[in-house]
């Protein structure tokens, strides 16, 4: 976990709420004050702020923020202020409503969260949208995409450390056969990725490399433009090396013509309290540039300040 939080004894929730209310009042909004408070509060503290604000002013602070802020800055503050499970539900709902074949948000949520966190996100989805995430995924996706995504969001994976090496060798061979035959949507291939524990999948993919001399994702690059294969590769990367997956999302977001603020915002908001320190190290290793410097070069204003505050708060994690 990151060190975003401030020691509980040093914080008065009511003081935070009062200061945030002042930031919205009068002429102009005090964006700097909003950043200085919210970017240094952990999920539990932000929930307390939201609850206290609602009971004090009879309004959800998210509504107050949305009224006062705009564009990318509003988006990152909004996502950051949400409870993590509510945020995942919100992002998943957006992803199903705006489904495109290159959309990997559902894979991120299904494969990089713990089983417990995914369950909490699904419960938040029920509460917010009065239906299940599986229902929306099934309705909005088709074909191979639905075949892969539905079990990914629906599974409650085992999270223990036990590994069955005999099974790993057998399933590595099975995966290799299916990929050699280009049966990328095979039931067994999807079953292995969608149901096995992450440590078991890691063992299987290590066996795959040992037995056949190549990383599985290299074998899945048969057609780099195939969007289903891209989703399959993202699934494997999210299950095995999430920090490498998220580093690439950030790199692609800020290294192309025009910044993909949506992707950058999502990764920073969802990973700041999880593994941002590791993502930053991976970014530095991969690009020979600190992530802070790359973000500062590519973004501006309050949005830049909030991003840097969130990734900077992870420095001692």
From TrEMBL:
Give the binding site residues for Ca(2+) 3: 298
Q: Which Gene3D superfamilies match?
A: Annexin (1.10.220.10)
Q: Which GO terms describe its cellular component?
A: cytoplasm; plasma membrane
| GO molecular function terms attached to this record | calcium ion binding; calcium-dependent phospholipid binding; phosphatidylserine binding
Key words of the record:
Annexin, Calcium, Calcium/phospholipid-binding, Metal-binding, Repeat
Q: Which residues form a coiled coil?
A: none
Binding of Ca(2+) 1 occurs at 24, 26, 28, 68, 254, 256, 258, 296, 299, 304
Per the record, the GO terms for biological process are: response to cold; response to heat; response to salt stress; response to water deprivation
What PROSITE patterns does the record point to?
ANNEXIN_1, ANNEXIN_2
Alphabetical list of InterPro entries matching this protein: Annexin (IPR001464), Annexin_repeat (IPR018502), Annexin_repeat_CS (IPR018252), Annexin_sf (IPR037104), AnnexinD_plant (IPR009118)
Q: Does the keyword Metal-binding apply?
A: yes
Record has Plastid as a keyword: no
Family as reported in the entry's similarity comment: Belongs to the annexin family.
About its domains, the entry says: A pair of annexin repeats may form one binding site for calcium and phospholipid.
User: What's this protein's name?
Assistant: Annexin
**Organism of origin:** Tagetes erecta (African marigold)
Species classification: Eukaryota, Viridiplantae, Streptophyta, Embryophyta, Tracheophyta
């Amino acid at each position: 976990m990151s060190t975003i939080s401030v020691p509980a004894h040093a914080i008065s929730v009511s003081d935070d709420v009062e200061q945030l209310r002042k930031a919205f009042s009068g002429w102009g909004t005090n964006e700097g004050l909003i950043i200085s408070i919210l970017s240094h509060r952990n999920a539990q503290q932000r929930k307390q702020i939201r609850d206290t604000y609602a009971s004090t002013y009879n309004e959800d602070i998210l509504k107050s923020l949305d009224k006062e802020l705009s564009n990318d800055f509003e988006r990152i503050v909004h996502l950051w202020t949400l409870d993590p499970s509510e945020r995942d539900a919100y992002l998943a709902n957006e992803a199903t409503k705006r489904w495109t074949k290159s959309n990997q948000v559902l894979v991120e949520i299904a494969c990089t969260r713990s089983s417990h966190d995914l369950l909490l996100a699904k419960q938040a989805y029920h509460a917010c949208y009065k239906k299940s995430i599986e229902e929306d995924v099934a309705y909005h996706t088709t074909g191979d995409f639905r075949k892969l995504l539905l079990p990914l969001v629906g599974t409650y994976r085992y999270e223990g450390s036990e590994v069955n090496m005999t099974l790993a060798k057998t399933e590595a061979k099975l995966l290799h056969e299916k990929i050699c035959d280009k049966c990328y949507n095979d039931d067994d291939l999807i079953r292995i990725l969608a149901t096995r524990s992450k440590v078991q999948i890691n063992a299987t993919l290590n066996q795959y490399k040992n037995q056949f001399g190549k990383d599985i994702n290299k074998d899945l690059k048969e057609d780099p433009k195939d969007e289903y294969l891209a989703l399959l590769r993202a699934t494997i990367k999210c299950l095995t090396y999430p920090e490498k997956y998220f580093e690439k999302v950030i790199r692609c977001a800020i290294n192309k013509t025009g910044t993909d603020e949506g992707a950058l915002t999502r990764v920073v908001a969802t990973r700041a309290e999880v593994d941002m320190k590791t993502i930053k190290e991976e970014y530095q290793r991969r690009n020979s540039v600190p992530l802070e410097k790359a973000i500062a070069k590519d973004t501006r204003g309050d949005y830049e300040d909030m991003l840097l505050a969130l990734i900077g708060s992870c420095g001692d994690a």
